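Homework-ish question, so no full write-ups if that breaks the rules, but can someone show me the predicted structure for this set?
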Amino acid sequence: MGFVTHLDDSGHPMMVDVGSKDLTSRRAVACGWIILPNKIYNMVDKGDVPKGDVLKVAELAGIMAAKKTWEIIPLCHNLRLDHVKVRCELDELRHGIKVTSEVSAREVTGVEMEALTAVSVALLTIYDMCKGIDKGMHFEAIHLVEKSGGKSGNYLWEDRESAQDD
Amino acid sequence: MGFVTHLDDSGHPMMVDVGSKDLTSRRAVACGWIILPNKIYNMVDKGDVPKGDVLKVAELAGIMAAKKTWEIIPLCHNLRLDHVKVRCELDELRHGIKVTSEVSAREVTGVEMEALTAVSVALLTIYDMCKGIDKGMHFEAIHLVEKSGGKSGNYLWEDRESAQDD
Amino acid sequence: MGFVTHLDDSGHPMMVDVGSKDLTSRRAVACGWIILPNKIYNMVDKGDVPKGDVLKVAELAGIMAAKKTWEIIPLCHNLRLDHVKVRCELDELRHGIKVTSEVSAREVTGVEMEALTAVSVALLTIYDMCKGIDKGMHFEAIHLVEKSGGKSGNYLWEDRESAQDD
Amino acid sequence: MGFVTHLDDSGHPMMVDVGSKDLTSRRAVACGWIILPNKIYNMVDKGDVPKGDVLKVAELAGIMAAKKTWEIIPLCHNLRLDHVKVRCELDELRHGIKVTSEVSAREVTGVEMEALTAVSVALLTIYDMCKGIDKGMHFEAIHLVEKSGGKSGNYLWEDRESAQDD
Amino acid sequence: MGFVTHLDDSGHPMMVDVGSKDLTSRRAVACGWIILPNKIYNMVDKGDVPKGDVLKVAELAGIMAAKKTWEIIPLCHNLRLDHVKVRCELDELRHGIKVTSEVSAREVTGVEMEALTAVSVALLTIYDMCKGIDKGMHFEAIHLVEKSGGKSGNYLWEDRESAQDD
Amino acid sequence: MGFVTHLDDSGHPMMVDVGSKDLTSRRAVACGWIILPNKIYNMVDKGDVPKGDVLKVAELAGIMAAKKTWEIIPLCHNLRLDHVKVRCELDELRHGIKVTSEVSAREVTGVEMEALTAVSVALLTIYDMCKGIDKGMHFEAIHLVEKSGGKSGNYLWEDRESAQDD
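A: Not a homework solution, just the prediction itself:
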């Protein structure tokens, strides 16, 4: 039986009390896509756009955002992260760029929000850098791929999908 | 003919020079969806989840993020915003919550990034508040709906779609 | 025998060395009031002002500020908080709104400043939202109610008052 | 007829639209007190506490906080300030330290919140630096002294008091 | 006749009042060096260290820092920048890497601090990325190269040097 | 054999994984100089410039910057610091002001960057406060003096110098 942990019974916001939880190894992986109009996709594919540089700026932005998650998401705890990695790569199938993030920490709460924030900000950064060419880009399928550690145990996006099918 | 305005010819990042551009009225609207698994969707729909409160926290987070866009997106200019509004509403069709933002400013560059950042952060905040129920949510179709003001003129997402069809 | 721990003998500022202190459970409660002119008080009391919404925005602002205390107060340590709660309620006696905060952490220094900062920022936020009606509000009696944990032991505001009377 | 400008009719938060307002000279003065227990008051009065240094750190903290007001108070606009001054002085009458701030800007909205935030943060900073001596301090009578500029015209705290008396 | 503009007659800090100054075009250029031990210098020179990537991360860090100057330097005004560019290049003569920044704005105060902050942070970022190889790097000759705009007129570092010689 | 730990084999940025490292006591000392033109040096030396106040503002700025290092330097981990001290003193030999910082923490990575950032920001703050007198100041010899703690062991700048001589 689930509940919105960030609101009390009268709907008042709060930062969940994690004072009784121990530090354990946490890890989360998230991903998402920016779908590109033909013009941009082809420029990136042919190298007319300095792809490496655009993608590395986006990766860096994602890493920096992961560290600021507690500041951006109102009820997130401020965590000390052990590791953040963000990768952007051209994805022919979806006709765009796939962003994947991986975050780990020894902490009292999970790092799902850090992973999702890193992906979102990397996508926003790609949009920002390419919007001079064409504004018709959009973000798709931003989701948590997997998480491990903590009381709620492991989570795999794929398992969820089969569960939905039942 | 488009180009990546945030990189010079050798791929070095830069904050575009807007020193010759005048202040004009800028406006941007963006939107996006968080798709909810049945369990959460039904709880929200029936009021088992204090919907109003979850959505208002998300709206506030989106507004605050719009003001921090220049800090989160590496090459964005720091702008002075005149107005930010973020609205979250249940969307039966997409089986989730739709977030819409509207930002305006009298500035030398557009406010598209502010609008998109507001939507992304509002979505992340909803995820954060509901993830204790089920982590199987994802974000979809985050895009710029329209913009006006500035040299590049007006932009409408819908026009883009018909253009793509040609 | 007390001393200003944040200055050395020549008056130079420093962040106190807590390197020899262990992590222990810390908790602090603070409160304060915003006194309202009749016009606003009555509007809030009768529900002409959407009280719930004003107060929840203030509560959220207080929570977020608690996390930023180390950034706002120059010589505060940056702590990792376990829990933050802020509550605002109409107070007939003082003719205003009472804000109470509670903060806890397993840390090497106390969380008094986090609790007091949360109260102050929640009060400022109420002022900001109601100042369009009447600017004649003021803040009163912002103080630490109690703290526990750490070498200096427990503290109760009430005990202080009787001590003052001696 | 007043209203809460930061909420729409359904109680959703928003950053007020100031897009039709022109830049005008704005100025606001605020003040407040930290009331000290005898022990601290006497130490400060006799110079056992390096008063100048404590108060200058507090003044600096207040100035820096004024610049961050838009980040701390959720629905404040991010303004460009022309001038910020914060002064702390021993006040025998109230048995404590009086903090006064003055902020000015050529902007589309008033700087009341910047002035009140500067006072609040300076008070918090004094508390932080002296709490090692005695935690029994509290803040009192934080209020807007005067403001000028903008459509709503001038405001004087004193006028309010006589109005209340009517 | 010069004076410390950020302190009043009693040494209290303040943010200088620029309320009577008009917006004019401002520009500042600054530079500085990080001197490398042989081991790192040779690795960078031969391409054993992915030079382009290290330097581009540093450039980006410098640009982002320029935007945060008002937050880092206590008495700086928060400005709206029109343009920021940071370039890092290997310098055989000084046996290190030279960082140059250029900042421009239409503002009421100069952008010297933004330019110097950008250089300092880019240098710190190079140090951070290479310190795993050898910590024996240092920064040298960080200075303002030139500035234009504003009441105090143009400034050229070179002119200063000849003046010193007199 | 050294390597740039913040880039993977293809030059993509990442925040190094410190997940297998234990908390140990870390300490770092850094220093640097701002060289003053005669005019400023003499004013400071004779007390025409309120030296104590300028230097204390710079010290405070350095302390606050140490806490923000993770936000300013893109790939730094966000650490919890135990102690930060920054001292500024007139240095006749170098004809300027010497800034020294000392930072300690029980952490999984070193605090070298925090110490160097504190020095850099204190120097920038002195520049900011004195630039109204003469802009011809520069920073020199900013370096890590020593560090202890962690797997890479102790480091002394002096040892490095003799090593270079070999």
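Now go work out the reasoning yourself. Hint: Chain F is about 35% helix and 30% strand.
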